[in-house]
Amino acid sequence: MAKVFNRYLKAIALTIVFLLGSNLLHARINAGDWELVKEDERNDIVVYYRTLESGNVEFKSITHISTSLSSFIALLKDFETLPEWAYRTEKVATLRQTSNTEAYVYTIHPMPWPFMSRDSVLLSHIDQNPKTLVVTVKGRAVPDYIPLNDDYVRISSGESFWQLTPKGEGTVEVVFQGYGEPGGSLSESVFASAIFRSLVKLYLWKLPYKTLKRMRHHIRNEKYRKKKFYFIKEPPEGDTHQVLTRDLL
């Protein structure tokens, strides 16, 4: 019985962490300071988090993958398959594709009792620096884009950020970063709120860590490996020069 109860507590904490909104850690970390949460040398994944001036908790995870920029963009643009590798994601649907580089995307985030599941609408935009060839994929919450659904609580604000930096010899440095406010109230249950306060720090790293770990396997799919985009320029073959970019740390 105790094991079942402990698993339940962890499920609540992990799902709340996925929504990435908290004012509870603001007093513990100075705004702008990154704290190392997880380092996995075997899988080449590190995860950091910090508290923004707004009080929102932001994560940043970094890994390196042998792939092309186009293959990675093909994976990110395949929205409907995101639940197969994006941690704690139940459903993703394209609401509107405004261009080859911009789309409105709807996502459902599962929540255990006593919380209602959340939904979100993100405006996703792809951009590439013509000189450094660094690709960024930014997502911004647009909660009023579609009517509210009574079955879910709409995530009110948030941003996600993918940065893909070619490092030579077919390797791409991947930075996955973001935060969000879960909407509604994290005090829906006094019991769950207490769990959140005590466990969020322990499990924050699992969202980006598991997402990157699963993504590493998923990107090997043949349909991504052969994909090319006219708006994505690949580095010259055999180029071992490491492209310089801003230091996110």
What does the model show?
This protein is of the alpha+beta class and 249 residues long. Helix content is 23%, strand content 33%. It has five helices and ten strands; from the N terminus they run αβββαβββββββααα. A hairpin with a 5-residue loop joins strand 2 and strand 3. The longest helix is centred in the N-terminal third of the chain and has 18 residues. The chain is globular, with a radius of gyration of 18 Å. It starts with a helix and ends in a 24-residue tail after the last helix. The C terminus is likely disordered.
Low-confidence stretches: 16-31, 186-194, 196-200, 240-249
Order of helices and strands: HEEEHEEEEEEEHHH
Q: In what range is the share of β-strand residues?
A: 25-35%
Span from first to last CA?
Answer: 43 Å
Major sheet characteristics: 10 strands, mixed
Query: Mean pLDDT score, rounded?
Result: 79
Notable traits:
249 residues; alpha+beta; ten-stranded mixed β-sheet; 5 helices; disordered C terminus
Short description:
Helices cover 23% and strands 33% of the residues. It contains 5 helices and 10 strands.
SSE map:
Layout: H1 2-19, E1 35-40, E2 45-51, E3 57-66, H2 69-77, E4 91-99, E5 102-109, E6 118-128, E7 135-141, E8 153-154, E9 157-168, E10 171-181, H3 190-203, H4 206-218, H5 222-225
Parallel strand pairs: 6-8
Antiparallel strand pairs: 1-2, 2-3, 3-10, 4-5, 5-6, 6-7, 7-9, 9-10
Helix pairs in contact: 1-3
